[in-house]
Amino acid sequence: MELKANIASARKRIRQTAKRTARNTARKSRVRTFIKKVETAIAAGNQEEAREALRAAQPEIQRAVGKGVVHHNTAARKISRLSARVKAIATA
Q: Over the Cα atoms of the chain, what is R_g?
């Protein structure tokens, strides 16, 4: 049995939540894609490509923070670890 709201405001809330969830899922997926591009370049050992991918990924991760999709500490941790891995390519 499917639970349906009877009150108009509750029905509207359900619609809003569905929209917001779809939007947030897309944002999260987009961030993951950008991170994956950096990781792929790191795995290939191409520092210049990795640096460019990181430069593109950073504002995207920050945008997710601004939209409330990712916590700011999580974003900081991800950016920090990625940049450390990109720097490590040069010494390797």
A: 18
> Token pair for residue 58?
């950073």
8 Å CB contact between 49 and 41: yes
Residues of the chain with pLDDT under 70: 1-3, 92
Q: Return the number of other C-beta atoms located less than 10 Å from residue 46's C-beta.
A: 14
Single-letter amino acid, residue 84: A
- Cite the DSSP H helix spans in 1-92: 8-44, 47-66, 72-91
Give residue-wise pLDDT tens across range 4-24: 889 999 999 999 999 999 999
- As a whole number of angstroms, the distance between CA 61 and CA 77 comes to 11
